[in-house]
Amino acid sequence: MKKIVIVDDSSTARMFIRRCLEIAGCKDTQFLEAANGEEALAILKKEPVDFVVADINMPVLDGTGLLKRIKSSPKLHMLPVVIVSSASNPAQEQELLKLGAHAVLNKPVSPAQFIAAIGSLLAPQPEDSLV
Amino acid sequence: MQAVTETVENMAFSVIEPLESLPDVAGEVIAASLTVLEPKPAPIRLLMPVPTARALARSLYNSEDPDLTQDMLTDVAGELLNMIAGALMRHLLPPDTPFRLGLPEIKFEPVVPNKGQESAWAFTADGQPFIIMADDELVKE
Fold this sequence. Notes:
Number of domains of chain A: 1
Order of helices and strands of chain B: HEEEHHEEEEH
Number of domains of chain B: 1
CATH superfamily of chain A: Response regulator
Largest sheet of chain B: 7 strands, antiparallel
Largest sheet of chain A: 5 strands, parallel
Oligomer: heterodimer
Number of helices of chain B: 4
CATH superfamily of chain B: CheC-like
Structural class of chain A: alpha/beta
Radius of gyration of chain B: 14 Å
Helix content of chain A: 40-55%
Distance between the termini of chain A: 10 Å
Strand content of chain B: 25-35%
Number of strands of chain A: 5
Largest interface: A-B, 19 and 29 residues
CATH topology of chain A: Rossmann fold
Radius of gyration of chain A: 14 Å
Order of helices and strands of chain A: EHEHEHEHEH
Number of helices of chain A: 5
CATH class of chain A: Alpha Beta
CATH topology of chain B: Chemotaxis protein chec
Distance between the termini of chain B: 15 Å
Helix content of chain B: 25-40%
CATH class of chain B: Alpha Beta
């Protein structure tokens, strides 16, 4: 079973991203939710996950801060992080990719966008198909 | 207003229809507003009766639970406006033009379009009305 952390201060946005990922193919998946980057880091300390989807604008610790913390962690630096933003700034998007973001998506996101940007992360893990 | 229609349909998995004229929005309402900070400061607003917010929330959360809290309805209205504003700006601005949005603010009182300053468009979501208002300076871009 996949584990995905969705990080957004809006519960509506978290639910919307979850439904997009489910439609995009994440059926047998456990979704863990966090309202900011610090809450996400607390989850990541407790259990391994497959990837993180994080909004960029959040209180306490924003998406950029969360990305930096993950990429500077010896234990977490390989974890794929997808950043979602309602603003548009090509220069900032390039900066996020340089920092190690797996993809940067603009809201409103769609299942098709997730498939196009992170299709390889959505594919079932080999052990999933053995059941 | 294809940008609005697509955004709400995708977000709430609801059927959206444009209305030819602005409906009378009476009773309990939610008014959400946010400011486009860049490239030009200007407001975008959303007005919806509470039953519209309730219907969209039920559809989004895929739940018939009538016990949706006011916080959930507020969050739905704010995030819906956030996504509509993003889609609208992407539609109005040339490709790859940077833009930045402020945070949504929510009030529970009716608002009307500022004549001569704002354009307004009305829609129904699964038969329930809502109105989007955007500063004419944005629409002229």
